[in-house]
Give the backbone structure.
Amino acid sequence: MNQQAHKLQTPPIATALRYVFGRHQHLRGVPRLLWWLRRLAFPPRPVLVNTPDGLPITINPHDYGQIMLFYFPYCPELRALIADVVRPGDVCFDLGANVGLLTAKMAQQVGTAGKVIAVDPNTAVAAQLSFTANLYYPQQIRVVEAGIAGNVGVAQLMIPKGGFSESVEVAPKAEHGKELTTIGNQIKLTTLDKLIEELTPQKAPNFIKVDIEGNEVELLASMKKLLAGGARPILLIELHVQKCLRHGSNVEHIREQLNALGYDERRVERVGQSYQLSPLSGKLLRNANLLFTVPEHFATRPYLLAQWQKGQKV
């Protein structure tokens, strides 16, 4: 990516639009209006901006989801959770990092003594994230352009018709009722075990965030060496109910496997600008972010423990 192509300051028209509309995300028509005004508000190339929460990201003004990251606070519950979970010096993996909003939050938390490995198979967003990381977090963030799978190999990157960068999938099976389109060339597949061996061999990960659009069905196979060695990192996994079925498994199988490894689980839900951890009863019927922990995680994370205990009372 040509660094000279980037403006290093947020365009003033976009800033003014965020000031006017930034608190009205849920009013019908506001996001669509801001999307229609994108050519007026942004240059026609990727641009480095700050989010409403002050996190730096590089966005593509032709991608609906990325523009919305500039105008509106994204998943405040996940950012609040990361603040309670990730400690200085931790090693974190962001699997399915996209342009790196949560990657940047992790980098702030780990400090210069920690490391964040951000993984995404999409060439364009990996380049955008690399640009941001090189400017703001050169010591903390390492970007890897690859898909996460149970084995090393290659695959095709696909996108639903009308989808944007956050909805790309790695070589899914045919889905009834939705057209999937190939984008770009074949991508590299790697395992989490291999990334740990190559990039953080001296320290097992403390925290792993997973948003890999159905390929979470291969997550445990991807980290079998890590788990066999007794490591139990905190896992934040967005489980995609229908996409997991398309990828040949289901979310209940993933939950059962993690429970068998000693993990307990809670659903992460938004409460204002923070979060609550709610127990699950029965099957997961819709997409959700689930937090998986083991008891020893709470010894050094008092705020997480307090939220977890609140959830037990629900």
Observations:
- Residues 3-71 form one domain.
- The longest strand covers residues 264-271.
